[in-house]
Amino acid sequence: MGSTSARAPFLSLLTIVSLACVAAPVSAASSSTAPGAAAAGAPAAPAPATSGGNAGHVMDRADLEAFIDGFMPLALQTGDIAGGVIAVVKDGEILFAKGYGYADVAARKPVDPATTMFRPGSVSKLFTWTAVMQLVGEGKLDLDKDVATYLDFRLPQRADGPITLRNIMTHTAGFEEQVKDLIATDPKSLLPLRDYVANFIPTRIYRAGSTPAYSNYATALAGYIVQRVSGEKFADYIDEHILRPLDMQHSTFQQPLPQQFAADMSRGYQVASGPAQAYELVNAAPAGSLAASGEDMARFMIAHLQDGEYHGRRILPQAMAQMMHDTPTNMIAPLNRMMLGFYEQNYNGHRVISHGGDTEYMHSYLHLFPDDHVGLFVSFNSAGREGGSHVARQALFDYFVARYFPGPQPAASTVTPQVAAQHARLIAGYYDDSRRPDRSFLRILALIAPDRVQVDKDGLLTFSLIHDRNTQLRKYREVAPFVWRDVNSNWRLAAQVVDGKVARLSVDEVSPFMVFEPFPWSLSPAWQRPAAIVALAACLLTALLWPIAVLVRRRLRVPAALPPRAARARRYGRIAATALALMSAAWTGLVVAGITSLNVFSSGLDPVLWLMYLLSVIVYVGGTALMLWSTYATWTAERPWTARLWSLLLALSALLLLQVAWSHHLMSFMTRY
What we know:
Blueprint: E1 50-51, E2 54-55, H1 61-79, E3 83-90, E4 93-104, E5 109-110, E6 117-118, H2 125-137, H3 165-169, E7 183-184, H4 193-199, H5 216-230, H6 234-243, E8 251-252, E9 268-269, E10 276-277, E11 281-282, E12 291-293, H7 294-305, E13 309-310, E14 313-314, H8 318-326, E15 343-344, E16 353-358, E17 363-369, E18 374-380, H9 388-404, H10 417-427, E19 429-433, H11 445-448, E20 451-455, E21 461-463, E22 476-480, E23 483-486, E24 492-498, E25 501-507, E26 516-518, H12 525-556, H13 564-596, H14 606-635, H15 641-663
Antiparallel strand pairs: 1-2, 3-4, 3-18, 4-5, 6-12, 7-11, 8-12, 9-10, 13-14, 15-16, 16-17, 17-18, 19-20, 19-26, 20-21, 22-23, 23-24, 24-25
Helix pairs in contact: 1-9, 2-5, 2-6, 2-8, 4-5, 12-13, 12-15, 13-14, 13-15, 14-15
């Protein structure tokens, strides 16, 4: 499940772009009490939030409604989003909860914040972490014990140490990214939790505790440990120990969705102007299978803001809740850090702990301001045109903080222009994402769309992964040694430099659970990417010109006039070039199809993968051998220098494509990815 405003599940490719203007249907907003009203019992006029002496707006129901009513209808319409819900809590009560747009476009059913259920994706993880901490508080789990002691199957071990629950909760277990069978729509594809965690074990690519690398699998593993230790099925445990105490009557982890919730479940959409989609089923259930209403999520926020207590009912001991909120894992100072399950999104001098969540169609975010006793939850039921829901939820947070928690002007830079230019040149380049599929064919994503830091004409840095709301890349100016700040906001980029070389970097939005490291030379897109483009272009041009040349000769009745050996060399070279171009196009098409819809990456793809791997061995190995022979035969025959040079280019292209296929596992016969 996704975890940031910049990413849907696992996707380095999917940077968020513009809100496009379309006529999406937007209904009058609905509320659990009356249109425009917040939940009963909310304080009427809390004190205004302040920061650094700058007073913000008074956060009361009237001001929230005016602000959010001005934001949401336009966000839904321009983003082609069917509907959404927003809930704000303060001082232990629901201050504001309101639905916007439609839960079902065809039926013109409005969103009700009390009853309409959304899929908050990875926000579900907060419930899993809460369950873990409940059992830690009871002495049944130990955060620093080898998780293997809690399992009834074997995790592959590494010589550099075991995995602990603390590693899992801070996303430092070291697993590579894995997406196969993550989301399905057919209930027959839904796996029991034990089957999923025992049979879909990703490779560990980092030493536990060393590197943040967001992991849905690790969260599912933690959920299975809750199930094993408690003796209750995971979804039943959450029902009994979290949802019922919090009076979350319109929430469930059960899959498929129980019939009693069917009437309240919002439909999911790619875009509001398109058809409704099937209910999404999450095999890594503890990582993202929650369905919940906006007001139910408000109750969960209140419980955490009050250190585990909600209206006299406690779901966590105070010490366990405080441990979750206040135990940071430092990776790249001074960027935002990972807590135990929550991650920082600090802004304007205010402490913010959060979690985002994405299914394919629904997109959400939960933010807590612990020191201000405020919580904000937003969920949309559509991806929206060109990532509209991602843009909208990030914009809502930015405007919310600016309105109610303004901060002082950031300090001026302490770095001279000369040093800034030197540091910019040092950091520019391509970077490998710690949250990546590393040992499967999806490794090719790093070549298709690598993450890159560049220096613009004004000496500012851009990072290809992070865009502003205007769809333009954020521009970062260095404000302290190896710390850059976006010129239009307080979001930062920072690098960890060791012995004069960049070891890793990240940005505030994802730094708690994701870092970026320089590629090894052998895999660097700096040379591999342009070389692969040239190689594919050479093969494709050869393939396209082959039938054209044949047709021209026939029409003009010009004989080939080549000796038999030279003719065979030319023909075999053309066959090899065509096969290499087609094979590479097939892999690209498969990856793009899977990114477009995660349902493609399911067990049903396995026969296709086996065929692709087999053909890859034949094409990349056999085609390269054939191309080398063709080049040798061309050079040892009396051929023009142009033919010789072209054959040499094709031979080098074949060797390069073979290297790419080998290093990116296109011949690995790996069906776990």
